Amino acid sequence: MKIITIQTRTAYRQLKRLLFAFATLSWALFVSSCNNNGDKADAYGNFEADEITISAKAQGELLSFSIVEGQTVAAGEVVGLVDTTNLHLQRAELAANLLSTQAQKQNIAAQIQVAKDELERIEKDQKRISKMYAEKAATQKQLDDINSAATIARNKLQVLQTQYPAIEAQVAAITAKNDLLEKMIADAVITNPVNGIVLAKLVEQNEMTAPGKPLYKVADMSALNLRAFVSGDQLSTIEIGKAYSVKIDGPEGEMLDYQGELIWISDQAEFTPKTIQTKKDRVDLVYAIKLRVKNDGKLKLGMPGELWISTAE
Fold first, then answer.
1. Taking the chain, what is the end-to-end CA distance rounded to the nearest angstrom?
2. Predicted pLDDT of residue 8
3. Phi and psi torsions of 159, nearest 5°
4. 181 plus 109 within the same structural domain
5. Same-domain pairing of 141 and 116
6. pLDDT averaged per 10 residues, the chain (length 313)
7. Domain residues for 201?
8. pTM for the model
9. Are 220 and 43 in contact (CB under 8 A)?
10. How many CB atoms lie within 10 A of CB 276?
11. What pLDDT does 70 receive?
12. Is residue 310 included in any domain, yes or no?
């Protein structure tokens, strides 16, 4: 009996040691698992920029085009010029037509004034002769002649007054055409509209261009977009307009932390079947998102980035 008791106690101690070792190992694995999850980002992606394609507004030969890929350009900077020789010749022709039409307008205005003065004189004579005729001091022929002269003078004035608006309309049309030419000449000067970096040069100097033809692409690098993908079960944890932690690799292996505002979430899932039936399929849904991150100069196009929705405690 004594021997059996001793063996039982020994087995019990060994079992206790094994249970303690197993519990210690399980706890270590649990802690390690927590630490690994805490070091894992919620989503990964790459930085991209909102590209703007600058197109020509005028037609003709590119006399100069100083754009170079990778060049930093400022808003309002002149980067090219389209040939405007034909436009200047058309403007000179319009200027000559305008002078001629304005001269006609002045001539018509002078004739109208002369006709008014003549009509005023005739109407005075008409009143005088009509009074004399009533007093038997003028003949019927004199009265008829003065009445006829008054009618002719009124008709002449009316014709001249009718011509004057037509001349004014011609002046207005020429002025409008001249304004259009001035705008076309101004559009021939290629001016960069935004601050940014030239991503692609699409034409070369001395090539022919036309309105709407793309010339180059530029992007504002003051803020970049991190385009990443999140799973379907992560959608409920993010909101448009909120800021989240964005991290990039530092020069010495450390992680550099930024704040990114969520500005877009795709309304369509990618790389998944159209009909979702199981919970696993719903979790595996992938949606594209964009976060706007202010650039301090370290962010580059195509650089990988990480999104941290939450951090494990």
1. 55
2. 56
3. -65, -45
4. yes
5. yes
6. 49 54 41 47 93 96 95 95 96 94 91 93 93 90 92 92 90 94 96 94 96 96 94 89 95 93 90 50 75 95 92 41
7. 51-83+189-219
8. 0.65
9. no
10. 15
11. 92
12. no
List the 189-191 sheet strands across, edge first: 189-191, 78-82, 60-65, 208-209
> What is the total count of domains within the chain?
2
User: Checking DSSP bridges between strand 43-48 and strand 304-308, what pairing results, if any?
Assistant: antiparallel
Burial 139-161 (b: 16+ CB within 10 A, else e): eeeebeebeebbeebeebbeebe
- 72-73 vs 196-201, strand pairing mode: antiparallel
Is residue 260 within 8 A of residue 246, CB to CB? The reply is: yes
Instruction: Tell me how many helices (H) and strands (E) the chain has.
Output: 4, 14
Which tokens in the block code for residue 276?
Answer: 């979702």
- Cα separation, 83 vs 48, in Å, equals 35
Q: Where are the beta strands (DSSP E) in 20-179?
A: 43-48, 51-55, 60-65, 72-73, 78-82
> Among 172, 187, 202, which residue terminates a domain?
187
Of 133, 167, 187, the one marking the end of a domain is 187
Residue identified by tokens 């980035």 is: 305
Does 105 share its domain with 125?
A: yes
Gap between the Cα atoms of 246 and 233, Å rounded: 20
Cα–Cα dist 266/290, whole Å: 9
Q: What residues have CB less than 8 Å from 88, skipping those under 6 apart?
A: 185
The reply to whether 263 falls in a domain is no
The tokens for 272 are 């998944």
> Amino acid identity of 149?
A
Q: In Å, how far are 64, 202, 241 from 205, measured between CA atoms?
A: 6, 10, 44
| Cα–Cα distance for residue pair 120/76, rounded to 1 Å | 61
Helix then strand then coil, in percent of the chain rounded to 5, is: 45, 25, 25
The tokens of 287 are what?
Answer: 């949606």
| Tokens at 14, concatenated | 């060994």
